[in-house]
Amino acid sequence: MSGWLVKSEPFVYAWDQLVKDGKTCWDGVRNYQARNYLLQMRKGDEVFFYHSNEGLSIVGIARVCREAYPDPGADDPRWVAVDLIPWRTLPRPVSLSQMKADPRLKDMALLRQSRLSVSPVREAEWKAILELAGWQENV
DNA sequence: GCCAACGTTGGC
DNA sequence: GCCAACGTTGGC
């Protein structure tokens, strides 16, 4: 199946924090393209969690537990948030340089448009990343 | 801290 | 509706 990727600066909200919290409201998105992807997320969808600025790697997989609803922190109801729960921590984080070096991932939205904070991940890309992460299960 | 890429804003 | 100026993001 295909999935998603969200970025977070670990200073602001790190993967470990999500694991500790058990659930988080993914809000604060103020970009139309990213918002459109949020709207397309469905309950149960898997979401790679990427650390930007510091770490520069995908560290875990979250799942959507609540589909898009108006961002409680926005004065404009067109902005939306979703709720995420942690699902699995990757056996090995997959770094940006690894992704850049892998020809299977050269068309990834993350690499092509680095500023986008929410982006889709295609099935083939998803599998390639799991492989780089040393994933054992067949998911 | 710098710079490139991209989005947004505002004057015309 | 175009485009220059500016702000923000994110990698290095």
Question: What would your notes on this structure say?
Answer:
This protein has 139 residues and is α+β, with helices and mostly antiparallel strands. It has a single domain, classed as ph1033 like domains (ph1033 like fold, Roll), CATH 3.10.590. The protein has five helices and six strands. A six-stranded mixed beta sheet has the order 2-5-4-3-1-6. Strand 3 and strand 4 (57-70) form a beta hairpin. The longest helix is centred in the C-terminal third of the chain and has 10 residues, at 123-132. The mean pLDDT is 92. It binds a DNA duplex (12 and 12 nucleotides) through residues 7, 9, 31-33, 52-53, 56, 96, 113-117.
Largest sheet: 6 strands, mixed
Tell me how many strands there are. 6
Task: List segments where confidence is low: pLDDT < 50 over at least 5 consecutive residues.
Answer: none
**Helical/strand content category:** alpha+beta
CATH architecture: Roll
Spell out the CATH superfamily. Answer: ph1033 like domains
| Number of structurally distinct domains | 1
**Span between termini:** 9 Å
Fraction of residues in β-strands = 35-45%
**What top-tier CATH class fits best?**
Alpha Beta
What's the short version?
This protein is of the alpha+beta class. It has helices at residues 15-21, 32-40, 96-101, 109-112, 123-132, and strands at residues 3-8, 24-26, 46-51, 57-70, 80-95, 118-121.
Topology record:
Layout: E1 3-8, H1 15-21, E2 24-26, H2 32-40, E3 46-51, E4 57-70, E5 80-95, H3 96-101, H4 109-112, E6 118-121, H5 123-132
Parallel strand pairs: 1-3
Antiparallel strand pairs: 1-6, 2-5, 3-4, 4-5
The structure holds a DNA duplex (12 and 12 nucleotides).
